[in-house]
Amino acid sequence: MNKGIVIALSSIGIAQALKIPIHYIKTKEWKPDLFFATGGMPSSHSAGVSSLSTYVALKKGVPTVDFALSVVFGMIVMYDAQGIRRQTGELTLKVNDLDELIDKIHEHETVKYEEKAPEPLKEVLGHKPAEVLAGAVVGICLGMLGYQFSKK
Predict the structure, then answer these.
(1) Domain ranges of the chain
(2) Contact between 33 and 19 (Cβ < 8 Å)
(3) Close Cβ partners of 43 (under 8 Å, ≥ 6 residues apart)
């Protein structure tokens, strides 16, 4: 069994699970479905790639190609999580608001128009930089723990 994969996937699961109590502390709202949601604090993407890079650094060493690959891959994933995916989420917020705006514009219109109501687009897709950083910290800690447990 590849311990790096187990550590990275476990870190993703733990980061996803942490979203539930963190959200509760912030809002006093219990939402277990956040375990399956994208976005939010901490970034599970960052936790997964950071734990893998940390494990590889401790297991194989920093000067190895393995470490270089995991770091470059991790940087791309974290950049994407807080860059492109976040911008997509911001755009989605605007698109979802258009429905309300159109209703207000056509409030006094006499023409009968029946619109099929689509499901709103998912608004939380990416991460704020702090969420990416928190995910990286969680991942580094879990990568070190995973390495320590794998030595036994």
Answers:
(1) 3-83+126-150
(2) no
(3) 15, 78, 81, 82, 127, 131, 132, 134, 135, 136
Mean pLDDT to the nearest integer, 133-151: 92
Q: Is the peptide bond before 42 cis (omega within 30 degrees of 0)?
A: yes
d(CA 141, CA 56): 13
Residue 124 pLDDT greater than 60, yes or no: no
Per-position b or e across 90-102, b if 16+ CB within 10 A of its CB: eebeeeeeeeeee
Q: What is the pTM of this model?
A: 0.73
CB-CB contact of 108 with 151 (8 Å): no
Give the tens place of pLDDT for each residue, 12-43: 999 999 999 999 999 898 989 989 887 778 98
- Cβ proximity of 3 and 55 under 8 Å: yes
What local confidence, expressed as pLDDT, does residue 9 receive? 96
